């Protein structure tokens, strides 16, 4: 557990990515992982979720068929993710089931309404609300920017 009470998981990431604070979206296992003795450690994360590195163990540089410079053991937590939700659902500490966002791909807020690392249909807690952020929705919806935390 971290200071904030977040549950940590142990996994491996490429040497060049192994820095505290780096966030990544775990995509799942690839063919090159077949037969690797460390496969279970690398693939104990939930696919399509965003993680943040909170600790690094550099005592051993592991050989890896995906990361040619090798891989270090790291501690990760699931990241809070900035996104937009309908204003009427933006209630601090409430839980929401994330629904895939807008399809207006040319909108300036497309990435905020469709953030990478959120799984449609999964539950999240609204960890904070940015009342200062103004989201100009091209479809005329009233939206608020929030930080979603996995639960």
From TrEMBL:
Q: Which InterPro entries match?
A: UPF0179 (IPR005369)
HAMAP family under this entry? UPF0179 (MF_00498)
**Of which family is this protein a member?**
Belongs to the UPF0179 family.
Please give the name of this protein: UPF0179 protein OU421_10120
Which species is listed as the source?
Answer: Methanogenium organophilum
Q: What is the lineage of its organism?
A: Archaea, Methanobacteriati, Methanobacteriota, Stenosarchaea group, Methanomicrobia
């Amino acid at each position: 557990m971290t200071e904030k009470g977040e549950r940590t998981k142990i996994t491996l990431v490429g040497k060049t990515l192994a820095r505290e604070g780096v966030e990544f979206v775990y995509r799942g296992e690839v063919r090159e992982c077949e037969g690797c003795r460390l496969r279970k450690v690398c693939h104990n994360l939930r696919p399509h979720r965003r993680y943040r590195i909170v600790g690094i163990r550099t005592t051993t540089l592991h050989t890896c068929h995906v990361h040619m410079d090798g891989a270090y053991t790291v501690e990760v937590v699931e990241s809070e993710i900035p996104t937009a939700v309908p204003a009427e659902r933006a209630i601090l500490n409430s839980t929401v089931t994330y629904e895939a966002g807008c399809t207006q791909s040319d909108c300036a807020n497309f990435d905020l309404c469709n953030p990478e690392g959120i799984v449609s249909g999964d539950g999240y807690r609204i960890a904070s609300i940015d009342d200062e952020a103004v989201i100009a929705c091209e479809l005329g919806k009233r939206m608020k920017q929030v930080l979603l935390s996995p639960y």
